[in-house]
Write a structure and sequence with these properties.
The protein is of the alpha+beta class. It contains 13 helices and twelve strands. A hairpin with a 6-residue loop joins strand 3 and strand 4. Keywords: ATP-binding, Kinase, Nucleotide-binding, Serine/threonine-protein kinase, Transferase.
Length: 404
Amino acid sequence: MAEFNRSQVLGSVFDTTSRYINVRPVGLGAFSLVWLSEESSSAYDLVRGQAVAIKKLLNPFATPASAKQTYREIKLLKQLRHENLIGLCDVFISPRTDVYLVTELLSTDLGRLLEAGPLEPQFVQYFAYQILVRVARVPSLHSYNSDEPQRGLKYLHSAGVVHRDIKPSNLVIDENCDLKICDFGLSRPQDHRMTGYVSTRYYRAPEVMLTWQMYGVEMDIWSAGCVIAEMFNGKPLFPGQDPINQFYLILDVLGNPSDKFISRICTTNTVEIIRSLERREPRPLQSVIQNLDDYSRSLLERMLTLDPQERISAAEALQHPYMRMYHDPTDEPIAEQKFNWMFNGGEFDEEMLKEMIFMEVLHFHRSACLAMSPMGLEEPTIPQFSESESFLNPDAFVNWTPCL
């Protein structure tokens, strides 16, 4: 029987299994898309013998939208296994039916590092490489050829996933300067029709602001370019006060969009507004980003391009002279399989989503036990539920003993 210990973290009840001790707060945030609150803490994992981060999802079953987001994040963390993506160590549901995600705990994040000011150019280059090798672009839907070799596609997008929220605070770093991408709460499939509210404003691609639902994986490349520029400057490149101001700040640097770009904007009103703007000529990036050499300037010019169809791909970026020191095609793997997004467009009621989440939790623990079976550990006893029985009976979950 799993034992739970209760503690207060940031004014909220934390119910953690007995394998975790010394629970303490780390931070408080929110899922931007559905405003599902989350709280984070750190703890020591007695089984793994290491510090971990524990994220509590508040009210994960409050609405079908929040339940689907919870399900999505659990599935993504389970499948996306890579040295530069945050790893899932454990997931459990408490007797209060709160969902907890346990991940690796790294020393800091890029946002905290940048609070001290710009980074040295050699650190910018190393972090930029690690971001790009994981945030890789796949061909756009309008140009994708399914027979095209997959050698140039890197891990995250090769799994069919668009992160949608690349920003400094979602890039965690350890004491060896190894970087990992975290927070997949906004991630979506590689589809050109998606919800419009994505990413933190400063890092939001112009096509997202203008076309609202028509965009692809190129948006991650734009966000990565904004992050790289911020590492050079020590402050955001486009710190817009609101979406309109954000777009104007972008135009002040990059100039007016081309007619080709404007022709792909979905709404007539937006087209009229864009065409009515006074003419702005592009400015040299070195006038707004400090410490650029020719190579870093050249790369950022191709990442921070208004038209996503003209934006550089990650495969091309990794072959750019700026990345020559670190680029190694043999050490830049792609995902073994595409992430299955079939659930994303489905209509599920709350009870069905609850069951899907619960079974993902059980599957995680069964897989972990099977992986450790040579050590003599027993497989968990997975509870069975009749049709008349609530699958999320807290007692049923508590009485189930995972092997980890």
